[in-house]
# Entry
Amino acid sequence: MFPFIRKRENLFLGIFALLIILIPLLIKNKYYFIVMNVVGLNTIVVVGLNLLIGFAGQISLGHAAFYGMGAYLSAILTTTYHFPPWPAMVIAMLATGGVAYFVGYPSLKLRGHYLVMATLGFSIIINILMVELDTITGGPSGFPGIPNLSIGKLIFDNDKRNFYLIWTLTFFSILVSLNLVNSRVGRALKAIHGSEVAANTLGVDTDKYKTKIFVLSAVFASLAGSLYAHYVTFISPRSFDFYYSIQVVTMVIVGGMGSLWGAFFGAALLTLLSEVLHVAEKYNIVVYGSLLTLVLVFLPEGFLVGLYHFYRRRKMKVFAGEH
# Structure
């Protein structure tokens, strides 16, 4: 089913799956479950965004909008129109993917800061709609009463059960993404990142690949948004503002562009850092900006990738010294 997963990645996936099973058995504190569930949701968004930024080389500041669309569409369908939650989530992902296509197809013809500004503008428009369409979205006051997800008689109505659900879907998001980047599509994306002109001369349809990966990353964000809505059972526009777009892009860069495990690391590190800085929330953006600057200057590959390369260089020096 996943023919492009490498042996070493299979080992990492096995360890990752084992941790998902064992961690809830060792932790009893409810707060820790909440934090880990937020890490899982952010990881899904960041893995999808890393496919776009790290592999295709296209920067987007619009993923807070896709995250919010998943949350609001799923919430409205289930609460207002009484759709079953799982079909509502699928509809939300399809609708978000459709919007991403119509936004991405013209926007991805732009380059550099023009693309960034186009996706930022889209994100701001969606956030304004969340606030102004108060008869549908609840406006600034938020949207309450969202039902929990369930499978048969199993209702995901507490943090521990949601941990298993969120992290199982996080695991499959990473699994699908690893299979994608090791396939022919992944090689085409890396070629586009290296040089669009060169990729075109080699027969790669750059517009098609960029649009498809933009849509896929938006669908990942929509999935995370729907999970978030059914987990917390209340959403408001503040959770999907411009600051969240900055957060997830920072997570991609800090973890390591072009590394899916780096995406997980970046999401975990900055989510935990955000919790630590919760008491001084107004300084969050200062700390994020400082951390991003330090990484770009000293570890441009990202923390995880940079540390791996440092380890490889040290190992090669030791090996050369022995011979």
About this structure: The first helix runs from residue 7 to 26. The beta strands are 150-151, 154-155.
